[in-house]
Amino acid sequence: MTSTGILGKDQSTQYMDPPKGPVYVAVRDWKARESDELSIKKGEKLEIKKERTEGWWLARSLDTDQEGLVPINYIIKDEESELSTLELLELFHYAMTENVDIPKIKEIKTSSNIDDAEKRSLLLSLIKQDSVLLDQLRKKEHEKPKAIRWYDDGVELTSPSFLQCQEVASLLTYKHTFIKIIKSSPEVVSDLLPVLLQNEKVIIEDTQLTQDCISSLCNLLANNKSLLELHLTNCSIDDKAVADITNVLQTHNNTLKKLYFFDNSHISSVSAQSLSELIINNSTLTELQISHTSISSNGILLILQSLKSNKSLKLYLNMKHNDTCTEYHDYNAIKDRVIFYE
Question: What is the pTM of this model?
Answer without folding.
Answer: 0.65
